[in-house]
Amino acid sequence: MKHLPNLLTIARLVLSFLMFASLVTIGAAEHGAPVPPDLGLGLAWFSVIAFVVASVTDYFDGWLARRWGVTSLAGAILDPIADKILVCGAIVGLMIVGLPYMFGALGGLILIREFAVSALREVLAPRGVKLPVTFLAKTKTTLQLVALGALMILWFWPAWNIQVPLDQLRYAWEAAQMLLVLATGVTLWTGAQYGRAAARALRQT
Predict the structure, then answer these.
(1) pLDDT digits over 50-102, tens only?
(2) pLDDT one-digit tens code per residue, 9-40
(3) How far apart are CA 175 and CA 150, in angstroms?
(4) Which candidate, 21, 19, 22, 17, places its Cα nearest to that of 39?
(5) CB neighbour list of residue 13: distance below 8 Å, 6 or more residues apart
(6) In Å, how far are 31, 51, 55, 109 from 148, measured between CA atoms?
(7) Distance CA 26, CA 95 (A)
(8) Rg of the chain's alpha carbons, rounded to an integer?
(9) Burial level of 141, CB count in 10 A (0-12/13-18/19+)?
(10) Which distant-in-sequence residues (6+ apart) come within 8 Å of 193 by Cβ?
(11) CB 195 within 8 A of CB 120
């Protein structure tokens, strides 16, 4: 059982890759690739389910590791990597399936921040400088996952075959977009916090 947290993290990596591959296939079909409609419908279902399950594992792997006292260096390294791959895969995948330009702009800002902080950690590590994950940064990841999950569910809404008034769908879509705006703002703010923390640490070395 002590390996279960790391297995959940690895499962998140695998699901992230499969989700991204499914979104790419759906996007190819929308650009004229010969993908059967039934396959496209199944891939839409799979993409959403894979994203939701992977997002849930983001909570349980860390919670189980702390509860059972089996935290490890491998888990500490893999967990943030898996988070970033899940978020980045969802953003790029949704861009491919054709979400509006505003999503592309916000998603691009999130991607830039994630890669910038990862690069910053790589540069600081040889100097013995660490950037601990803050509570706000963990909240940022949760906001990202909820916003992306809501957008994915609403974008593929016809696949669910659930009749809902168009006004309600429009309000839900606008709420999901505002949630993504909030997630982007928190993402950029935490990136700035990490930048300031890195600058202070470097001045002290």
Answers:
(1) 999 999 998 888 777 777 776 776 667 788 889 999 999 999 999 999 888 78
(2) 899 999 999 999 999 999 988 776 777 878 88
(3) 9
(4) 22
(5) 78, 81, 82, 85
(6) 23, 9, 10, 14
(7) 11
(8) 18
(9) buried
(10) 134, 136, 137
(11) yes
**Token duo for residue 11:** 């499962």
